[in-house]
Amino acid sequence: MANEITTRAELIDALRVAAELEHGLMAQYLFAVYSMKRYTYEGLDPVQLERVRRWSSSITLIARQEMEHLGLAFNLLAAVGGTPSFTRPNMPQRRDYYGKAGIKLTLTRGDLSTIKRFQHFEAPEDLLKTAKDGVIDQEAAEAWCQRKDMEIDSRADLTDLLGKVALKKHAPPLLQGAPVLSFGWDSVQQLYETIRDGFEHLDKKLGKSQLFVGKPSLQLFGGPSSPQHGTMNDLNQYGLDLIEVKDLASARQAITMILEQGEGVVVNASYLRWTHFCLFTKIRREMEEFGLGDLAARPVVPNPMTMRHPDVCPEDEVTLMTDPASVAVARLFNGSYELMLLLMLYLYSDNVRTQEQVNALMDAAFFPLMTMFVRPLAEMLTEMPAGDGLANAGPGFELNGDVLLFPTLWATWDLFQERFDALVRGFDELLAGGDPWIELPGQREEGFTTSRLWRRLEYMRTNIRRLAEDWRANWLNIGRTS
Known about the structure:
Low-confidence stretches: 151-182
Helix content: 40-55%
Shape: globular
Largest sheet: 2 strands, parallel
CATH superfamily of the largest domain: Ferritin, core subunit, four-helix bundle
């Protein structure tokens, strides 16, 4: 591909890279959050735990916004005729997987070294130039996050300013000859600036009616333009500010939001401290100041996996879990995670569905799969042993190949049912034996004969049974057409 995006195919390819990148960043941020300590028996006093809780809250906010960025990338894709994808490589991957951007795909616990890596992910291009061995200069980062020279008053002003100022101030080398899609860009900032320029070029070249050819029904968005605005099903109620992309102005607005929340390249000074880069800068400073860099997170192994995946590199960075109970819980996590992705992918598809079905599927994808299964299973794994002689386990976010929709529309609902039923069987098999966690620290509680982990899993088994039966009663045969 040339150094500028000049065709629809090039724009779609770049947006797929952006979606894959957002997905990978989100998984890494969530892994770090799930690993952080929550109880006094883990060696922290109440004041220290409150600090760790605030850090966890900040990283969770960032991860939610990465989910939002992924949704925006999907809307940008759908608007120009592309199809969304949740496919991404398993972790770990080599440091140069994304070229000079230096985005090391790896799952590591939420300690100081991980926060430094995240700070580098979100760094504006000016500070990447002075980073040493992938570590941002903290003094320069603090100064960046306190600057007041780019104050603006509105999102419209921000969109205009990005178009006129950002390239002048940051002059990305990408636009001086490096290829776009051999990962020749040097930062996330460069990628999105190139995508924005591609939209502007193609809008002039093709015109609005020829560039924005996607169906509005293939996008998920909230707010006043949404058919769900004012109802309990408005996506914005979940804290996701998703924009409908229908023309150049809305495309620029979506890209501006991503750049604004991430690097804070051009942003109102009052919002600067809430950008991803400045939040990570603050967490790093406080970890160093209070001596909690190695103590904030549980001793979770890096890249915990239930099996060896052929796409990981280097293999020696993988921790293969061997504790049978932990492996079983990790497989339940992976199954819940993939089912959630499949439901979301269906929502972005062009399959037959009513608005009522969309609403119900949204509830199934976000609540309860995310909040009642993916998150709690991940948190519990970081308290469980990975195996003999190993530290704690964790969620590997493992994917067995591409995440694709089922090939036959008429059987889609049955195939979703199979996924729910498989999770039910997994919980039943896990809980068929004795409690393997009762002797772990903090697991014995007065008045109970089973561990805290065991009781949470019993509660989750009840919920997954209910979900599977609800699906069987309400969803089979829905969506089938003659």
